[in-house]
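Continuing the series of single-chain predictions for the mutant panel. This is the parent chain; the variants come on the following pages.
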Amino acid sequence: MNQKENILVIQTAFLGDLILTTPLFREIKKKYPNSKMTVIVNKGTESVLEANPWIDEIIPLDKKQIKSSLFGFWNFCQAIRKRKFTLCISPHFSFRSSIIAWMSGARIRIGYKSAGFSFLLNDRRQRPILGPHEVDKLLSLLYTEEERKNVSRKPELFWKPESVVGIQAEMKKHGLEKGKFILLAPSSVWETKRMPAEKFRTIGSELAEKTGYKIVLTGGKGDIPLCEEVGQGFGINLAGKTSLPEMSYLMSQAALLVTNDSSPIHFASSFNTPTLAAFGATIPAFGYTPLADKIFISEIYGLDCRPCGIHGGRVCPKKHFRCMLEQDTDAMVREAIRLIKG
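Parent structure:
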């Protein structure tokens, strides 16, 4: 298609959602190759898209600021309108995203029927909660089901060489070689999506002993104590020491990722890194499963309380937290070794 468009994509969701939107960015540019594409993202996540060859411009949006200031939100929308976008695609659900889409002045505004203020969109698509992978849901904003059949669902992450000098030095310092270390990412924004620290610790120590690979703990600055608890005595704690491009680089070098249902899964999918994921409060049918070729999802079957929410929650509503407390670490270690050995 040679039609030239000035395209706006609004994706101000969590980091994992942004990573899963990268196939959509690629396909938009393939469908409209002569167009300019601008992406609005949540401020603080923009560096994960650095060096992305499909995106022409990234606009970080300070969501805290626009939520607290109607005047600030109005000014932001006015600035977007001046850019004279012709096509807007909004994978985000919030009513503010729909307002931005409408205020952009784009003649075509595509999004989900279930989005807040979706009446401001003029091409509204169905988005089933259960069933399709999230990438398929995102691609449905651009393609029919038939058109999606031969489209790659793998996320794509890139980095600038100068952005990963620090992590390369850190890896050299700790003797971390490509394919010879295992990443443990034990945290999550939502407490009920976190497998208990002692279970991660058991898995990490046993994998260190049985594979001879080094164990690396990763997460944000707030996860430093958790990662220290998990890896004390055997792990290398890099929590809080990696930027988003550095996290991408580190993930691309790992032999295996062990994590919860959280954003590290989607980093791993971008580099086809074998992934073992523990699902507790959430379920694979929500569509956020790993897309690497080698994966294992550990979950407890037969619990009528699962899922207890689309994101999980702060505490187990049933007070027993069986979905994580009953995770079988012996089985997880066996599966992890199988994933590594292929």
